[in-house]
Fold each of these.
Amino acid sequence: MATLSEVAAEAGVSPTAVSRYLNHRIELPQATRDRIDAAIAKLDYRPNLLARRLSTGKSEAIALVTPDIANPFFAELAAAVERQAHASGYSVYITSTGGHADAEINAIRRMADSHVDGLIMTTNRVDDGSLAGLLAGRENVVLLDEDIAGVTVPRVFVDNAEGSYRATRHLIEMGHRSIALIGGPHRLLSVGERLAGFSRAMGEASLTIRPGWVLLGEYTRDYGAAATHVLLDAAEPPTAILACSDYIAIGVMQGVREHGLSIPKDISLVGFDDMAFAALVDPPLTTIRQPVAAMGELAVRHLLSLLDGHVPPAETRLPVELMIRQSVAPPFKQG
Amino acid sequence: MATLSEVAAEAGVSPTAVSRYLNHRIELPQATRDRIDAAIAKLDYRPNLLARRLSTGKSEAIALVTPDIANPFFAELAAAVERQAHASGYSVYITSTGGHADAEINAIRRMADSHVDGLIMTTNRVDDGSLAGLLAGRENVVLLDEDIAGVTVPRVFVDNAEGSYRATRHLIEMGHRSIALIGGPHRLLSVGERLAGFSRAMGEASLTIRPGWVLLGEYTRDYGAAATHVLLDAAEPPTAILACSDYIAIGVMQGVREHGLSIPKDISLVGFDDMAFAALVDPPLTTIRQPVAAMGELAVRHLLSLLDGHVPPAETRLPVELMIRQSVAPPFKQG
DNA sequence: TTGGCTATGTAAAGCGCTTTACCAACGATA
DNA sequence: TATCGTTGGTAAAGCGCTTTACATAGCCAA
């Protein structure tokens, strides 16, 4: 690899001149420019980003810390983040942490310490304060999708409550009165809000939420299946289930099938997320669509404006949408 | 951020001593070690990786260049690569290129130029020679999943031919004689090999491959649907379709449905990849499973051994597996 | 003729680290 | 006593770039 100095020597000017020329910090006469350009071409020079970063302290790169890149939701988010960042001339380094606290901390350290200008953080855990401590006071972080308590950086979320409200309304309008909710980890922002939207819709329709019909555990297929078994084993099972993620919904489908029942004939189901597979499952899943692309883009835009010294909104809520497919039907009349 | 020199000053030693101590290049008496450790703790020192990289020329990081991180196949691959790399103390930078040649080239440049020790490259395009040129002679690259013609770096592939051979055998054993194949881009390694396995199975069973029953286009859902329409609009349509990817298979399902037919009653279908959604669709898709985790891990291991100066096998083939689900049935008897 | 301006640069320091010398002090050895 | 090896370090250069401060040459106005 050729260096700046070699180019300068070849062109018969000083390294300073070449550097400033390349960074548009000097006006040179055509002849000099031509000599430099020729030298660059001849030596196939490309600047060493590491050196530049060390020198300037800027990297023109951002990091995306994500719990699990194999999860389509985060993968799509990552794709959107990349798209938007590239459009602004930024590189993106994606890391996935497996959802482990120490991995998250390491990732943030590694990223934030030295080689990126900013950080977009998504998590799906309840923080014990260590993340909050790490992120406190940083001016180059934005939180995406899920909150970290006690952190004051700009945040981009969807309107979780509105989503579950609409999902619940939809079930109620289809005639359901006995509706259960299966959600992710207790105390996670999205879970609390989705539960709140559910409660509001139920309340407005003067329906009671039965104790034991709100099951909070994990955003996983397995939990969805397990919770479904609990629900269906009860004396009087619900006629509809609101799953707080499509993964959970898949588990519900499995659980319902294992109980010898069918969706939507016996049990109606609404999911949340509208992951790519939601339209492909049997039956196609009615679910709440999150605007994944918009979330990623907005997070990048807010981060870049932060880096520019501006102050983006502390919290942005993106609208969700009810995607009606075929997993909801009127309740089965038993008598 | 504290620097090495500040730590040294605090501990009353030279920066050299601290650096060598941290890199295990010197043996210091306990007292000195304690002073340095105390200084590090007090100043919350963490080394600046950028500076270290610039100085040593090593980064303890590898890059994964992938066409589309939102594609579950590549996302799972990425997750496996990360897992294995982290286990060896390496960081991974993931970039997705959108499958555009120039983006791939830029990514390789950016990555390879300055900030990673090695590169794992996956692509899903047919190279026009530019990638090959860029990668030629490099000793720190491994190719994963798909080939680039003319490149001599170590490669990790699955046994594509064996996969489609088994898929085709399965269809034949179920009684099918009229089998069509829908594949990805002509001239892609995987496509050629999958076609070869198909041909071999057909030949062994003395079945002819009808002209017009091998459709090569793209590894996309849309192409799968379009190709299916072509197939089903013909006077005498096939009774089974071998889709060379699960994405294509999803498109086939859609196409079949749009024709008012059903799988597997009217048309049998086998996919390829066993993406997460394959088990979730209606009907659950019989497909060829690729050992995604093993692929990612092996690619990392080969890359690291390359970096260590060893010579991994030029080409490794990983075994595939037929996952029998419910998209294949004996052919519908028409007469 | 002088002073000052503009155009066209350059020298040198510094980013934070590693590494290659080198060195001083001390005890052991010949 | 001279030498040697070991222990416990240090000084300084260098990785490739940016940036601040300064320099020179030419030209114009006063």
Note: DSSP finds twelve helices and twelve strands in chain B.
Amino acid sequence: MATGRTHRPATRSRGIPEATVARLPLYLRALTALSERSVPTVSSEELAAAAGVNSAKLRKDFSYLGSYGTRGVGYDVEYLVYQISRELGLTQDWPVVIVGIGNLGAALANYGGFASRGFRVAALIDADPAMAGTPVAGMPVQHTDDLEKIISDNGVSIGVISTPAGAAQQVCERLVAAGVTSILNFAPTVLSVPDGVDVRKVDLSIELQILAFHEQRKAGEEAPDDGVVPPVAAKQQRKGPDGDVPAVMPA
Amino acid sequence: MATGRTHRPATRSRGIPEATVARLPLYLRALTALSERSVPTVSSEELAAAAGVNSAKLRKDFSYLGSYGTRGVGYDVEYLVYQISRELGLTQDWPVVIVGIGNLGAALANYGGFASRGFRVAALIDADPAMAGTPVAGMPVQHTDDLEKIISDNGVSIGVISTPAGAAQQVCERLVAAGVTSILNFAPTVLSVPDGVDVRKVDLSIELQILAFHEQRKAGEEAPDDGVVPPVAAKQQRKGPDGDVPAVMPA
DNA sequence: CTGTGTGAATGCATTCACAGCG
DNA sequence: CGCTGTGAATGCATTCACACAG
């Protein structure tokens, strides 16, 4: 997951649980694929398999949106595509700006998955004036100085931050001050934002670290200890050798 | 957040809840920053703020690792860095391969956050033979034909997939067959893998869609309806106009 | 007297299992 | 009769609040 928001209590939104909202895009993707193959209807079982969840969860999720299925039959693909799109707000066009056009920012600018889902890259912004010369993904790279003007001229409410960590908080503040209320953060920093602004973060190295955790366990516990924690010990035992603590973290 | 695994029941790992594991990298990042500023100790309150969580959660999380704090004082920064690194398996070196060297794959290859946390990019792999000519991030791009050999020669157990969606499942199967047991998937597809293989996915457009959902709500509900669902209606009312369903999804 | 560590309480999310619609 | 929609049951995660270690 690279999922995660900062701030804001888990107020469920218009009755739809966060966990469900996070899965709607998955369903939408699976449905879009079915739609392209002209499949007219689909059962919860089939769709769940395509989306990688179990069918009970899917039916529960859909029940929050309304009664869109037909008992004994399944769901109408086109209709569901429309309903979920509408629920997610994808029936409108969302202009976004990408700030920080390094390797990652450029990759994002070129990423087709945005445009195909109602997100339009309205501008690319970078602090390096030298970048203004060469266009990225067919667009000019504009200078950070004009950030506020770009935001308001284009009515942007969603910003993507792919700057180095050090610049992210300041960029974030300028975006918010200029009117952005949703931020997708790729910089490895915790952003602090005022109430009413949503932040989601994607941290590439965090995902790998989580994998490493599980990977380590696979290697270690070939002989199952039955999962039970040793009665005492284990709680007392550790607690600083108090001298040999190595500076293990690489750089 | 782009978090999420496919398959495998939520068996908590060695007594540490998944939700806690997912936060350990955040704590580690905050601690590393403190360590670099030579801060010797930190309270749960301070560290929580730096990591963007609340202090009760942080203390509970740490309690799963052991008793590493000192009451009335706080936590020893260096010691915690070491313990969390060890818990996450970052005290060892993890060779990874990146398959699919497009814009995103290249950005990942250049991403500094991997190397600095014990992940070593052992090889870049792409299906396009033309890519073999020009190195990316100072490394040669190798051809998919050699995938199996590269995996076993380098003892790779973690693979990153940044191919187009269409190629992902097949690449995944070859990685798994060659011995990879953890996969970080950037392709917008559900991967199916055998038991014992972990998959985490990062889907850029999903994150934006979740933001759009909340953004839409902000725009709509300026006059608060008190959050209560209208008594009846709302459940019955929708259900297909059954004719005017537009093909709304943009291409 | 400060701040950790943790039982107990609360609140979500997932899963079960089945009534009942089409 | 098949498959949706949903109450009820279960299982996690978060939060509270406080005993007690240093």
Note: Strands of chain B lie at 41-42, 69-70, 74-76, 94-99, 119-126, 141-143, 158-161, 182-185, 198-201.
